[in-house]
């Protein structure tokens, strides 16, 4: 168990940057930069262990109860 | 409607307060309305009031999941101000200041508006320059602003830390003398009472479960108390905007975050201004009951919890004690949290949507309460006329894709950047 103080939030982890070397529409950029679903309930998000090992991780957390279901490596693909 | 006055107070006192009229009714939803406002908070109630008063549209329902005034209008730190640099925010908020000044008379309800002034403290030469610039921009828009040096600040708030060995010494500050506070619950109740008296149905304990949209036009809403047909629907549900947007298959430039506030035990009058710390995010005022009312940063991650965690509270109060060391002697009376619509540029959205007859009022971030009258007024105009007013033209939904962001302080959802 680590203190919450050691961690820093990095936002929605489901957002995907539009692919490089491909035609990208304004709408796609808009979705990537600004638009967010922000669900009530399960939310996959990025956190950094800032005051610790400085690793980025993905955390599956409930935005209403703060329950943490799962953690993943930052580069792990999640089904 | 019974008019509130010194005479009605005396008359009812003599009869043991048994004969007061109900301030608003508790009707069942009708089959159809001209306008349905979702959300019985300050902005929703104000919208209904101005629809009836300014646009003579009275076949209006307010649909509230819980009870009116139970969300952010009852959870804020009651600060009212218009000390913005950008034209869109400054002109909109100053229009609201005018409505605040007239509100108690207008609503026949004492909202206890107290224009005691707000001071934003500066802790460096660079910050003094930035405040001079903001103050000048405010004055160009007809908003009162006074740049104070260290001695002038000391005169006004001697209890702040003016010693020489502090980490963030006070260099001066920017004051808006006409800013202040008001009694938040009274604002909700005052608007509700007047809206109700003009024929608006205030329907509480009624949750919206879906929308009826056909051929790109809104037809009505589905609720826990049955389907309601509506020609127009307005969303005023800060904190729950993303939940309703999902039911409409809309993705918005908004994240839902949690903001905490707290009050200390009541003490004798010590602070007669609203003061903000300039080296972090902390604000404080003293309520009429004597409690120190304080708030600061978001908890910093998406949350619908309506209650906060201690690390943020500790962080915020550390700033408070750095600014006013006497606070460390006070006991905490209450802490609470509310859920905010955090827009991506820190400014709100009051606009039409791609669905005909569906209107959006959201994204209020830290500043929803002070915007209540101006938001209700412009949203009512937008709904009634089916076009935005020049005051809320800048608060468009598509400004993110077109690049016309209103980046007042760079404070959006991403508090980890600041």
Specify Rg of chain B, calculated over alpha carbons: 22 Å
Mean pLDDT of chain B: 95
Question: Which architecture of the domain at 1-15 and 41-79 in chain A does the CATH hierarchy give at level 2?
Answer: 2-Layer Sandwich
Number of strands of chain A: 4
Strand order, biggest sheet of chain A?
1-2-3-4
Task: Please identify the structural class of chain A as seen in this structure.
Answer: mainly beta
Question: How would you characterize this protein structure?
Answer:
The complex is a heterodimer of chains A (79) and B (418). Chain A has one helix at residues 26-33; strands at 8-12, 42-48, 56-62, 68-73. Chain A is mostly beta strands and 79 residues long. Chain A has a domain at 1-15 and 41-79: 2-Layer Sandwich (Folate-binding fold). Chain A has a four-stranded antiparallel β-sheet, with no helix packed on it. The radius of gyration of chain A is 14 Å and the shape is globular. In chain A, 11% of the residues are buried. Chain B is α/β, with parallel strands linked by helices. In chain B, 29% of the residues lie in helices and 26% in strands. In chain B, the strands form three sheets. In chain B, strands 1, 2, 8, 9, 10, 11, 17 and 18 form an eight-stranded mixed β-sheet that branches. In chain B, strands 5-6-4-13-14-15-12-16 form an eight-stranded mixed β-sheet. In chain B, a hairpin with a 2-residue loop joins β9 (208-214) and β10 (217-223). In chain B, α2 crosses α9. The A-B interface holds A 3-5, 8-12, 26-27, 29-31, 33-40, 43, 45, 61, 63-66 and B 242-243, 246, 251-256, 300-305, 309, 311, 344, 400-401, 413-414, 416.
